[in-house]
Amino acid sequence: MSGALRSALTLAVLAALVLVAALWGWAAFTEPFPEDEPVAICEDTPVAAGSEVRRDQVVVSVFNGSERSGLASATSAQLEERGFVTGEVGDSPLPAATTQIWSADPTNPAVVLVQRQFKQAEVVPGDAIGPGIVVVVGERFQTLRKKQVESVVAKADATYCRATGSE
Q1: How much of the chain is helix, strand and coil, in % rounded to 5?
Q2: CA 156 to chain centre
Q3: Which whole number is the average pLDDT over 143-148?
Q4: Higher pLDDT pick, 101 / 35
């Protein structure tokens, strides 16, 4: 093989490699970034009778059922300071005069633990409009109880939405 032919063949192979690399690079460059799968804030977890449920295991979503601006976010911040995990915060679809905890099971240990943080909070049937325990603060809500309840013991077998990553 002559030197000119060898040089031409080498140049053709190198040009093909550059073309393949350019096509691969363009395909990688124009591909969308991978999206992280959202991690659930809590998972339904069974709790046996006699087991303890702590504040750091309970997710609380707070909604404003009053005309006062920022009431839900302020209440959620207070609950977070006490160790609860923040769920959703927003406006309630229904107005409320008093503090309500929306749950079908008023004896659920997570519901009882959240209820003990409030003065005169009543458990009422309601839809789960947010993750975890749903609290609707109403017009008459002023502040949380001064005495902080850190945990409760389940009186019966139950299921609650336990905060992801809590032990």
Answers
A1: 30, 25, 45
A2: 26
A3: 92
A4: 101
Spell out the domain ranges in the chain: 1-35, 42-163
Radius of gyration, alpha carbons of the chain = 28
Closest CA to 101 of 145, 61, 156: 61
Each residue's pLDDT tens digit, 23-76: 999 988 888 888 888 888 999 999 999 999 999 999 999 999 999 999 999 999
107, 156 Cβ separation under 8 angstroms: yes
* Tokens matching residue 89: 């915060």
Q: How many CA atoms lie within 13 A of 158 on its CB side?
A: 23
CA angle 57, 61, 67 (to 5 degrees): 150
Mean pLDDT of the chain: 92
Token pair recorded at residue 117: 């943080």
User: Which residue, 22, 158, 133, is CA-closest to 79?
Assistant: 133
Instruction: Give the three-state DSSP class for 53.
Output: strand
The token duo for 87 is 């769920």
Closest CA to 164 of 49, 64, 63, 37: 37
Q: Is residue 124 scored above 90 in pLDDT?
A: yes
